Amino acid sequence: MLQSMYSGISGMKASNQELNVISNNIANSQTTAFKSSGITFEDMYYQSVQGSSAPTTSSGGTNSSAFGTGVKVQGINKDMSYGGAASTSNPLDLSINGSSGFFIVAKGDIVKASATATIPVDNPTTGTASHTITSEPSSTQLLYTQDGSFSKDPDGSITLNGYRLMGYAVSGTDNTGTTTTASSLDPTATTTSTTGTVSSRVDFVDGQKTVTANDGALITLQIPETVHEVATATTPAKDVAVSSWSVDSNGVVTVTLADNKVAAIGQVALAKFTNDSGLDQVGNNMFSESSNSGKAILDSGVNTLGDNNSGSFSTIKGSSLEQSNVDLATEFSHMIEASRAFEANGKIISTGDTILQTIINLKQ
Predict the structure, then answer these.
(1) Closest CA to 328 of 9, 27, 87, 20
(2) Which member of 144, 177, 180, 211 lies 3.0 to 4.6 Å from 172 by CB, making a disulfide possible if both were Cys?
(3) Could you report the per-residue pLDDT of 191-228, keeping only the tens digit for each?
(4) pTM for the model
(5) Between helices 2-27 and 328-361, what is the axis angle to 10°?
(6) Dihedral angle over CA of 311, 313, 315, 320, nearest 10
(7) Do residues 169 and 213 lie in contact, with contact meaning Cβ atoms separated by under 8 Å?
(8) Exposed, middle or buried, 44 (CB in 10 Å: 0-12/13-18/19+)?
(9) Whole-angstrom Cα distance, residue 46 to residue 272?
(10) How many CB atoms lie within 10 A of CB 3?
């Protein structure tokens, strides 16, 4: 009798944990890029009443007899499926158009393209080696998210909850036909031109036939206040204010200048994992690597010189945000089931109590 009461208690605990998971899902049904969770159960150890026996020449075999001791939670699993996207009016609102990919965000020092790369990425030119981060500075914390509700801070960094969006520097051909290398594309660097010292350095403006990403290192993506236009045969070098910006499906960030010219300034990097569900949830719609998620595999940059794995990643959609993948109808159905299971297990305990009281009254 006591055993049945203990089984009922374990059932109530398990049902209560399921209700906790369901309530969190429902509470986050409007949270950007939220991934719902589901719970699974397993039976607990069994107490043997009779062992099994093998058949003999004179009798058949018998099965073992045992009764269970209750239920426990086997695991709480994340549903990493795509939640669909809703359009917004903010050009820095980004969504990953599918379930393959995470934005990479970092807290720590700003990483500039003109400096020695502090977050290097292996970039194999042959073979099938993974495109992974080879080292991470102790001063930098990298996290991963599918929440693309980014904004621009006073430093020009593209940020989410204080974390800066990471990507690749890019190079291209400027309007004089000169190729600018990725190492000089640091929006916060200074250089001297015919107009004096300028506060940014992006030399290829319009006319670029091909934009190539330097995907051998992660940098902090920043939108400069001005862009330096190199001199041409008819116009001197000058600094032109940035008036707007956008992100294309490959993640290439472009800025439109006050003179209506356009310049590419970087590319948003994406990461994926062998086991997305194994990522650790750290709050604020962010995840961190775990021993069971595997290492982050980064997408190849546009027109990369190395092996290109970008076909296995989802594209990026600008001016949109991924929605929660919570299905309220399913959650309410599960809530009813969990509530009924909780009540049924409670009934086991109250029934056991009634039987014990009856047995005690037999002595009177």
Answers:
(1) 27
(2) 211
(3) 444 443 433 445 444 544 577 888 889 999 999 888 77
(4) 0.84
(5) 160
(6) 170
(7) yes
(8) middle
(9) 41
(10) 13
